Amino acid sequence: MPVKIRLQRHGKKGKPFYWIVAADARSKRDGKYLEKLGSYNPNTNPATIELDVNGAVTWLQNGAQPTDTAKAILSYKGAMLKNHLAGGVKKGALTEEQAEAKFTAWLDEKTGKVDSKKDGLAQADADAKAKALEAEKAVNDARTAAAAEAEAEAKAAEEAANAETVEETSNEEE
After folding, report:
1. Are 18 and 10 in contact (CB under 8 A)?
2. Which DSSP state fits 27?
3. What confidence tens digit (pLDDT) does each residue in 47-97 have?
4. Can you tell me the distance from the alpha carbon of 21 to that of 96, in angstroms, rounded to the nearest whole number?
5. Which residues pair with residue 23 across a beta bridge?
6. pTM
7. How many CA atoms lie within 13 A of 41 on its CB side?
8. Which CATH number is correct for 3-94, 3.30.70.890, 3.40.50.300, 3.80.10.10, 3.30.1320.10?
9. Who wins on pLDDT, 71 or 170?
């Protein structure tokens, strides 16, 4: 039975959410699967990926073939690297401790990159909000100045009208 590691679509129209599953290659896309390995949510930035790395490595060692997208996700989370290191341990090129140390170092580096991206996105969002606030303040100041100017003109016109009525009444009295 050929086994594939692939994505199984869930979620609603326009908001996809995927399960990463090991399934028989002949089963339907959203049909029966052998084991759920994780989930993938592309709607967030950066995309949210939860993966059982050890389960994925077990399936890879047993001959499961990942689809292109699943392979990219497995590489991103380190399952492909861990499988590669496990092959090196099997052949005697590495010890178990060396393989685990390499995997941990890679995982730490990857976590640092993801955290820096999240921080950069948060900073960009904060900058955009600050710019929008400054623009809104400038518009409000311009509106306030225009309103004050209009009010001053209205007072001046009212005073001029009052002065004319005072002149007219004084001219009538004379």
Report:
1. yes
2. S
3. 899 999 999 999 999 999 999 999 999 999 999 999 999 989 888 888 888
4. 27
5. 4
6. 0.69
7. 8
8. 3.30.1320.10
9. 71
